[in-house]
Amino acid sequence: MTPFAFVDGALDRADHLRDDPAALAEAWPQAGIIALDASGCALLDAGGALRQFSGVELPAGPGEHIFLGLRDGRAWFAADAAHVPAARTDSLDLRRAAAAWPAWQATLFAQARALQHWHQRYRYCPACGGTLQFVRAGWLARCAGCASEHYPRTDQAIIAAITDGTRLLLGRQANWPARRWSVVAGFVEPGETLEQTIAREVMEETGVRVHTQTARYLASQPWPFPGALMLGFIAHAEPDAPHASEELEDARWFSAAEVRAGLARDWREADGDGEAEGIVLSSPISIARYVIQMWLDEHQSARNGQ
Questions:
Q1: DSSP conformation class of 164
Q2: Beta-bridge partner residues of 159
Q3: pLDDT tens for each residue of 6-25
Q4: What are the φ and ψ backbone dihedral angles of 78, each rounded to 5 degrees?
Q5: Which of 89, 254, 126 is nearest to 182 (CA)?
Q6: Fewest CB atoms less than 10 Å from the CB: which of 46, 127, 159, 166?
Q7: pLDDT tens-digit profile of 61-106?
Q8: Do 160 and 110 share a structural domain?
């Protein structure tokens, strides 16, 4: 299984069904439905698990609900919590769900939340100001005025394990718990390659010079907070002295021993005693922890001569 959230158990998007309302209506009675409230939290059942509604509980049919795709032949939709017959109002946010639920449910939730956020934010046409109407089972917004079409937005961002050959570069934001550290991340700008983004973001945030030709892709993760795709890399840099910046309260080089100890600690320790010793690294739901672990594994293999 993928060692971070929102990847395993992804649905078959079944794009061909988005333009087939008859097929969606036929699948509706046996469909699974995840319901999100206005804040993006998923409704829970009496046992605190994901409340999985079925189409028969919403006899009006798929209507304007978002078609997410198929899982083992069963259609899944995302619905507004205001439109489902929920006896309970308990709900859970996506970060906590990702740490507790089965992987496929967290991935389903992430997809539903990303689409919900797009629907909430894109109400009017950016070209003419006309009202947008969602079609293709929720995957296309068409302007009622100028007929221009708009698709769900995904913002690409890099997240990189930067090394000087023996140490790992980590930073921390001012609003994080006192012991929490992570790798550098940032959004891709227009006209930029991913390698250029890594070099620019690391320089802006830490003052460290990255060798762009060494950047090596590792993996990617959908990050629906609210709608990014995180692209994980390892890259080498000069052993420059890092400095704080507008985005980072502090940035430092850490030895392999310090990183290993940080990974061994429970990531929730950072929310406890800020006076305790040692760094605490990112949550297991994030690709940040994965790229850190990949750097440590490769560093150890190099030391062992493998």
A1: S
A2: 185, 232
A3: 999 999 999 999 999 999 99
A4: -110, 135
A5: 254
A6: 46
A7: 999 899 999 999 999 999 999 988 876 679 999 999 999 999 999 9
A8: no
Amino acid identity for residue 142 in this structure: R
Is the Cα torsion angle 36, 17, 101, 285 positive or negative in sign? negative
pLDDT digits (tens, 9 = 90+) for 31-62: 999 999 999 999 999 889 999 999 999 888 99
Please give the model's pTM, rounded to 2 decimal places.
0.93
Domain membership of residue 4 (yes or no) is: no
Residues 192 and 98 grouped into a single domain: no
The CATH number assigned to the domain holding 208 equals 3.90.79.10
Helix axes 256-264, 287-303, angle to 10 degrees: 130
Q: How many domains does the chain have?
A: 3
pLDDT at res. 190:
97
Where residue 27 sits, what CATH number does that domain have?
Answer: 3.90.79.20
Q: For residue 80, what are its two tokens?
A: 């507004």
Helical (H) or strand (E) element with 292: helix 287-303
Which amino acid is located at 212 in the chain?
A: T
In a domain, 6, yes or no: no
48 residue type, one letter: G
Q: Is 2 a domain residue?
A: no
